Amino acid sequence: MVIMRHLSALLSAAGLYSTLTVANSTQGCGKALAPGITTGGTGSSNEVNFTTTKGDPRTFLLHIPTTYTPDERRSKLSEADFNPEMPVVYPDDINNYLGKQYCLDNDRVYVTGMSNGGSFAARILACDSTASKKIAAVAGVSGAYYQGTTEDDCKPATVPIPCNGRTPFPVLEFHGTNDGVIPYAGGPRRHRCLPDIPHFVIEWAVRNDLGTSNHSSSLYDGGVTKYTFGSGSSSGLTTHYKIEGVGHTWPSVGGNYSNINATPLIVKFFNKACFDGI
After folding, report:
1. Tens digits of per-residue pLDDT, 39-82?
2. 7-11 and 109-114 strand pairing
3. Which of 154, 168, 176, 213 would staple 188 via disulfide (CB 3.0–4.6 Å)?
């Protein structure tokens, strides 16, 4: 599925070998890792087979991270220096299945993705009345936040962005100003309308009752601007990183001429967010 290609669901676990003493833990708490499941090491992602509730067979990759794996050349979500704790799961419909096998905290389920995967996280799941109640936070990277059903009369700065998800909802967004696939300024594409990124982010800020004002910080000699919405305990509930000169990619120092690593910022944002508040 193209929409899932760059999608990673992060399931935060506390002690895979012990009982998780929180109110919303899963059935897998207290169970040891299944035979054959490995942790860490390059290429150590585990291929897991299961059957969905509709009876469809599915296969997904599960990585319990300590080091980098070649399956994550873009995000490096299994890089121990970036993400020392969260198991990383590659698609499909697997959250319920994993909860029966591993000790997870249902109040700390996070979703991030790039391009269509970013849209799946920050537009589809976050705006779904059911799914948004099962996810603590999302992060979109170079997201394709399509709206409407036609390119006609596309107005990127004002296009309506309907959303039926829960609020408040923590949203983090990264986008390069030189993105030639999903332009920062938005516009007509593939028979739909892409909002400009400031409009998409501000809509989330308003939805989160933070208003349209923000605090901007110039980082890396002006190469990155961070926009933070909200104040006090709500500060950063909606956050956007505008990255100058970077194209359609997952920002990573050295890999794509970016001067910012998105992954550790995403993990830090997720670690602050749960259903008790950011």
Report:
1. 765 566 788 887 766 777 777 777 665 432 333 444 555 455 55
2. antiparallel
3. 154
